Amino acid sequence: MHVLLVEDDVKLTRAMQRVLGEEGYVVDTAKDGPSALSLAAAEGLDLVILDVMLPGLDGFRVCRALREAGVQTPVLMLTARGTVDDRVEGLDAGADDYLVKPFALTELLARMRALTRRTRAPAQSSLRAGDLELDTARHCAIRGGREIALTVKEFQLLEYLMRHPNQVLTRTQILDAVWRYDRAFTSNVVDTYVHYLRTKIDKGFDKKLIRTVRGAGYRLKV
Asked: What SS3 class is residue 53?
């Protein structure tokens, strides 16, 4: 499940990203309105968690612009402004649900599950990159007709790469997305797990999908 979290509070972002990661979500982040607009328009997102008070453009304007552009990804708005008028404004802007700060993370997760149940389609249960398929229901990869078992972290890393095909992803980006700001890990763990994935995904195939971009990071070349 791929989520965009738009929040300018760094501590809250890290806490939410860690919790969502533990629940199996792949999380991208943005901390201002213009960045949110750009990222939320990308294909493959299952949910946008959108704070109202943002630099550049507030959450209401971001949500309204997304709907005007035809983006139908579910939007869960977060705000400290909990009056009836504020909730009405958010829903009228195109939000699907509204959660007032401070909130319990258990309630956030429940609302996320409810929103994604309404919109999830069976066709989204797998990702493809060339001849590689990632089965998100069974947590395995398939290449050349062969099923490849993956550990939890290998699966999360491969899913993150496959949701950003042909993009150069830095070690820091990968670490933040897959290991969720856990300070017990460093960028070296990214290299280690990329090696594990290459052994499982690319070994024995003429076309190598996982590429090293020297001095930058990694990309999944399709």
From this structure: coil
